[in-house]
Amino acid sequence: MRQRVEQYFRELGERIDREVEAFTVEWRQSEALAQIQIGDDFYVFIVFSWSDEEDCYVEFMIGDENAVVQTRHLDKLDAAVSIVKQAYQLARERFTCLRRPS
Fold it and tell me: Is residue 102 part of a domain?
């Protein structure tokens, strides 16, 4: 599963390359945390976790390192939401475990 998640983040990075200042992924045993910088101290965070091919989830946060959106970041908020939407759409296309009803 890790290889599939690595490919997902590579493809996402290619899709949003022009919109971001930096894109890093930290790996743990069955979890990845992507930090996508789109402005000065403003990020989209994506947490992708899995236990196997059939059990996974993805979560998103927007803001500074504490996931707080400050007023100086409001001009980047639409870009952040766009990245979240693209990331979620791509994840649902690539991972059947995200297609199940909640």
Answer: no
pLDDT grade for 101, boundaries at 50, 70 and 90: low
Give the residue numbers spanning the domain of 53. 2-96
Evaluate whether residue 64 is within a structural domain: yes
Residue at 101 is within a domain: no
Q: Which amino acid is at 38?
A: I
- Cα gap 26→46, rounded to integer Å: 10
**β-pair partners for 63:** 43
Average pLDDT over residues 8-28: 95
Cα distance between residue 79 and residue 38, in whole Å: 8
pLDDT confidence bin for 102, thresholds 50/70/90: low
CA distance 12 to 10: 5
What pLDDT was estimated at residue 94? 94
CA distances from 55 to 33, 86, 95, 96, 98 (A): 17, 21, 10, 9, 8
Assigned domain for 34 exists: yes
